[in-house]
């Protein structure tokens, strides 16, 4: 069993890979670059006295899909939630380090503004149960003060089309959001997130509660969405990470172990531990 | 002799030995010893009859069932008793008991309407004051308060419900009534000189005082049940709203919308409490059965009239009318409570 310290040591080495070594690798991927959309440096996150993230540094390139994998309790959700400042909602939580969106410090911005620019889709579909399908999608816009009916209609239709749900619900927009199936509910939640026109979308195991067909629909959707948005997805499903992502980050015990292009990661990972996890030998 | 038998006998001898030591140590144990051995014989005998079942379990089960049924029967019995005892008045006045407006014990002309009016109006007044206050408290406790503040504050609001109502009544007489009479009521009359709701000399002992006292008493019910209902709304819903860039106010609004039927239930439960409340109200409301628009005039509630007039009921008809009054109160409160409970349960169950 590798100790956390060793892992941290390796991770530190990883983030300061000398240029010579980097160019010797199969690609020129840089784990932390200021040119990327989101840059996290030395993130430490805590729940009370428990440390959930240890010195995590990684950056997320624009218009790409980054998958975060790792066994349960490794801090992947915590990292995701620290990006749009959802981590701080939990009482007793704390975070240190720097996180930037387009080179601006996320923790200096207004949290409400951050969450509008960085949307989130959750593990369990969570449409607003008292609202209709239409109102669910329009909810974010209405919170922003949008009242024009025509504009709302337009955005709702566009978002539902983007979420590949329009054809299934266009005749029942006034029905309750929870009358839909689980997979449809999750796409409704994605449409709801898209309606606010965010730049980044965070997905916390968006398909783990869904059947295989709904899962493949969500995956197709992610592939489509990447053209316009930057996507970070946490997943338990290795195949899913391999299918949908451009880059993959492997977390273990709160530390970032390895971060690379998905192709490299799944064919020739640099570290043994990553290989063991990917091939299912532990976790 | 089989091993099992040897074991049984040796255990038996062991118990006797232990008991003998006990007896030697304290003579008082002797009696206990004989009692215990009797009990054993008895239970062995019962086991033969009962088969595998454990006697203790059966007794426990039957006993609790009996008490549960007894409570239910008690309610039915009370309803029947009230009905049969008020037959005199029911036969004499019929539906008029609910529509005419006079309650005159000397002329033996009885109608419940003034009391029903007083009960409903004082309770509604209480709600007008207590609902905004109680909901603010509930929202603060469930959504906004930090953990270290939430527990003691919740405890304190619930403590309000534990204060005996006669204490509230006494406080009403010595603090509330003079304050209403000298400050609030003259102010209301100055501000709204033509309003029909604020007519008459301000004595302090009136509908308004009853309403204010009741509002303090129903506040803890409304706030603590609403808080529970709000807390039962699951966190993913809050996260969904936060994730869309909602402010704390918007998140609270979303949570509130989703809990609204339960909160309505909490309000109605508070209403039920106000309707049935007796002592505090009777001490400040002035006890005059009349129907007026002005809340600055004395009124009377059903519960108040019952408490006040039972000792004075000189004739059978008077007594019978009072019992019919009690029956009406009984029915009203049961309906209100069933309705409210269903609403609260409905919301809480939805999230499980």
Annotate the secondary structure layout.
The complex is a heterodimer of chains A (283) and B (352).
Chain A lengths: L3 H12 L3 H6 L13 E10 L2 E11 L4 E5 L6 H8 L9 E9 L2 E2 L5 H7 E4 L11 H11 L5 H14 L3 H4 L12 H14 L4 E5 L7 H14 L4 E5 L3 H7 L2 E6 L2 E7 H6 L4 H7 L5
Helix pairs in contact in A: 5-6, 5-8, 6-8, 8-9
Chain B lengths: L2 H23 L2 H23 L4 H31 L1 H7 L2 H4 L13 H32 L2 H16 L2 H27 L15 H26 L2 H9 L4 H11 L1 H17 L2 H6 L17 H8 L6 H35 L2
Helix pairs in contact in B: 1-2, 3-15, 4-15, 6-9, 6-12, 7-9, 8-9, 9-12, 10-11, 12-15, 14-15
What descriptors fit this protein?
heterodimer, A: 283 residues, alpha/beta, Rossmann fold, six-stranded mixed sheet, four-stranded antiparallel sheet, 12 helices, globular, B: 352 residues, mainly alpha, MetI-like fold, 2 domains, 15 helices, 78% helix, 0% strand
Task: Summarize, please.
The complex is a heterodimer of chains A (283) and B (352). Chain A is an alpha/beta fold and 283 residues long.
Name the helicity range of chain A: 25-40%
Round the mean pLDDT of chain A to the nearest integer and report it: 86
* Annotated CATH topology of chain A: Rossmann fold
Q: What is the count of helical runs of chain A?
A: 12
Q: What is the CATH T-level topology of the largest domain in chain B?
A: MetI-like fold
- Identify the CATH homologous superfamily of the largest domain in chain B: MetI-like
Give me the strand/helix succession of chain A: HHEEEHEEHEHHHHEHEHEEHH
> Which architecture name of chain A does CATH use?
3-Layer(aba) Sandwich
What does this protein structure show overall?
- The complex is a heterodimer of chains A (283) and B (352).
- Chain A has helices spanning 4-15, 19-24, 76-83, 111-117, 133-143, 149-162, 166-169, 182-195, 212-225, 238-244, 262-267, 272-278, and strands at residues 38-47, 50-60, 65-69, 93-101, 104-105, 118-121, 200-204, 230-234, 247-252, 255-261.
- With 283 residues, chain A is an alpha/beta fold.
- Chain A has a single domain (4-124, 199-278), classed as 3-Layer(aba) Sandwich (Rossmann fold).
- Chain A has a 6-stranded mixed β-sheet with strand order 6-7-8-3-9-10, sandwiched between helices. A 4-stranded antiparallel β-sheet of chain A has the order 2-1-4-5.
- Chain A starts with a helix and ends in a 5-residue tail after the last helix.
- Chain B is mostly helical and 352 residues long.
- Chain B has 2 domains: 3-87, no CATH class; 96-350, MetI-like fold.
- Chain B has 15 helices and no strands.
- The longest helix of chain B is centred in the last third of the chain and has 35 residues, at 316-350.
- The mean pLDDT of chain B is 86.
- The chains are: A alpha/beta (283), B mainly alpha (352).
- Chain A binds chain B through residues 84, 86, 89, 91, 112-116, 119-120, 122, 124, 126-130, 139-140, 143-144, 189, 192-193, 196, and chain B through 146-147, 236-247, 250, 254, 257-258, 260, 350.
